Amino acid sequence: MINWTSLRLQVPMLRRCLSTLTKSEARKKRNELFDSEAKRQRAAVGRIEKIEVKYSGPSDEITLVMNKHLSTPFDCAKHISEGVTKVAALAEVNGTPWDMHRPFNSECEIKFVTMASPESQVVNKAFWRSCSLMMGAVAETAFKDSISIHLHSFPIPNVRSGSFLHDISLGFEDWKPTVAELQSLSALYIKLSQKNLPIERLVVGESIALEMFQDNPYKSEQIPNIARHSEDSVTLYRIGDHIDVSKGPMIGNTGIIGRCTVASVHKLSTDEYGTLYRFQGVALPAGILLNHFAYGILEERARKLNNSVWVPSKIVEDSEDQIAAVAN
């Protein structure tokens, strides 16, 4: 008799064996495909059509003439002031949350949303989601190229949970990060945020997305289901050379993230995917000041297993006794 549970556990391993690319080679290929598709989409626009974008600010209203399918809220912000480009986390286009680097598809009215805007719930979720995206970028670069690592997923942001997270498969079964290792991960995270990199958005077809992530067994399984529910398309986001799948929206750039800590890594066991590691962190928007004691309380909360979202059937190690990295 076939042991279906055992077979499911073997499928990810079998798929991994199909890819001969190293991590750096796979990352390079994804970026080449991303750039090629972005260039193709720009060329497909053809004759440029002008549209009016009406900006409503705190003290003035401006009508800008922009390029349909090419110009973005960030391009509008550059026409308004340098200050707006630095603090705008999201845009609202005709009342809909909109990525700063997502092109307009029609004439519209636009507002910019900062981390201090009254629309805090929308922007907070985008902030938390972007933090999870960056966690994946940090994890992919933190380990040597010889170590197998596959990003699984990050969930819908739940700000009240106390931590953002990313579930990741590593090339070893029993890793307990030391205080120094958590500090190193936090340092990499801070370094990435300080680069002020734009968070780019690109919508691609299912076949391109599958080609990009053919080295990742989890993404290869998830992408067809995502495409079925999104008109055969998949939304991608890129930070530097890191690319992942998410419906968004995301904040405009990494510099909007200020103080941050990779607080803990929990080892989890799943019936379907085997061992996963849940990377958890906490962050504050740039410009938000908090004393060491108050921030320490946030770190302590982020250290505990975040079970407000999907949790596997069995927790191998709770890891609540882990010591969080010292925040920088």
From TrEMBL:
GO molecular function: nucleotide binding; RNA binding
Pfam families per record: TGS
Domain of life assignment: Eukaryota
Subcellular location: Mitochondrion
Domain TGS, chain residue ranges per copy: 49-114
Residues making up the signal peptide according to the UniProt record: none
GO CC annotation terms, alphabetical: mitochondrion; ribonucleoprotein complex; ribosome
Keyword annotations of the record: Mitochondrion, Ribonucleoprotein, Ribosomal protein
SUPFAM superfamilies, per database record: TGS-like, ThrRS/AlaRS common domain
Annotated family: Belongs to the mitochondrion-specific ribosomal protein mL39 family.
Name assigned to this protein: Large ribosomal subunit protein mL39
Species assigned in the record: Neodiprion lecontei (Redheaded pine sawfly)
Gene from which this protein is expressed: LOC107226548
